[in-house]
């Protein structure tokens, strides 16, 4: 890996106790994130902002940059020989590696550009990825991707904000790398990230308050009551509406992030996608000492039943998430 496009990242990975093929895959994903970062940085200069005029399987309008980012990840990784298949929030079905190309044993899942509503307003967005293992040599089906989050071998994201930051875990801590814009090298800037157990900061889209379930309403009401309320402390609220940016803040200084199930559509278990968003972020948060639940259950223990499954998400500082968990058990 010495000729790699990101020598610092390659040196870091050399020291990790993971298979070489996984190291190569992470290098490849980092390269894709670097390319997406460059595209995001150029934006209107390359006429790549705005809607693509198409929709994904979930009926959401696709932005040009959603499609471009998806294409970058597919094209960079398809011929690597490391993968058996890929799946993306932006594609209807799985993408098995074609038979004329070399295959490996890993599955790469991604939300190529999370935070679509922020693309055109120049607010932080990101790529979220998750890597699973499958049986070598067999053609993949959707079932191979339907693994509980605790089976992930790698999870991470690239945040395209004031800096581009690549964050990942291979199951031994969470590490953050800042992209040097001159050398295009990802430099380790934080290792073994730990989320403080207590926090005074919560993140939730308050405009949905009237639809929330009782335990979430109780928790947020108590935060809003401040020093005079049962929590006897003032809370601050943040909501960027890009999960990558909100979770990055939680990893950096603590907090609780919630996109809970609500009563708008009782048949819909939540807004966020289990395989492309909730699982990778939950793996990161748990590796950083936090917790991640859907209300009553740990997200990482959920066995998915479909590729684009949605889930209620409550994650972050341990003591706050535990409290919301208790409120769900109490009802
Ligand atoms: P998308 O997958 O369309 O980019 O959605 C972004 C997600 C997530 O990143 C964020 O936390 C949430 O949707 C924001 O939703 P609201 O606009 O409903 O607040």
TrEMBL record:
Heme found in the keyword field: no
Class of the enzyme per the UniProt entry, highest EC level: hydrolase
Matches recorded under Gene3D superfamilies: 3.40.190.80, Fructose-1,6-Bisphosphatase, subunit A, domain 1 (3.30.540.10)
EC number: 3.1.3.11
Reaction catalyzed: beta-D-fructose 1,6-bisphosphate + H2O = beta-D-fructose 6-phosphate + phosphate
Subunit structure: Homotetramer.
Protein name: Fructose-1,6-bisphosphatase class 1
Source species of the chain: Polynucleobacter kasalickyi
Organism phylogeny: Bacteria, Pseudomonadati, Pseudomonadota, Betaproteobacteria, Burkholderiales
């Amino acid at each position: 890996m010495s000729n790699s496009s990101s020598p610092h990242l390659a040196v870091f990975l050399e020291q990790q106790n993971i298979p070489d093929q996984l190291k190569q895959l992470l290098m490849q994903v980092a390269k894709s994130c670097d390319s997406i970062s460059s595209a995001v940085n150029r934006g209107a200069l390359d006429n790549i902002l705005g809607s693509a005029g198409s929709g994904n399987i979930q009926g959401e309008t696709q932005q040009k940059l959603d499609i471009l980012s998806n294409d970058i990840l597919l094209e960079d990784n398809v011929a690597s020989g490391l993968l058996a298949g890929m799946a993306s929030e932006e594609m209807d079905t799985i993408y098995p590696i074609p038979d004329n190309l070399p295959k490996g044993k890993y599955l790469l899942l991604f939300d190529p550009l999370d935070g679509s509503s922020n693309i055109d307003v120049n607010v932080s967005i990101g790529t979220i990825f998750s890597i699973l293992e499958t049986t070598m040599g067999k053609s993949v089906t959707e079932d191979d991707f339907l693994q509980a989050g605790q089976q992930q071998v790698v999870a991470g994201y690239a945040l395209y904000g004031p800096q581009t930051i690549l964050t990942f875990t291979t199951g031994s801590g969470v590490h953050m790398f800042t992209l040097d814009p001159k050398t295009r090298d990802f430099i380790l800037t934080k290792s073994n990230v730990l989320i403080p157990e207590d926090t005074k900061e919560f993140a939730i889209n308050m405009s949905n308050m009237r639809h929330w379930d009782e335990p979430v309403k109780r928790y947020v009401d108590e935060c809003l009551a401040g020093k005079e309320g049962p929590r006897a402390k003032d809370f601050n609220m943040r909501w960027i509406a890009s999960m990558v940016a909100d979770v990055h803040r939680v990893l950096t200084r603590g907090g609780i992030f919630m996109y809970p199930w609500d009563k708008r559509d009782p048949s819909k278990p939540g807004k966020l996608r289990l395989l492309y968003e909730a699982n990778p972020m939950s793996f990161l948060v748990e590796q950083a000492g936090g917790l991640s639940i859907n209300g009553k259950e740990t997200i990482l223990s959920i066995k998915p039943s479909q590729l684009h499954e949605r889930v209620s998400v409550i994650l972050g500082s341990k003591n706050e998430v535990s409290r919301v968990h208790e409120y769900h058990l109490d009802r």
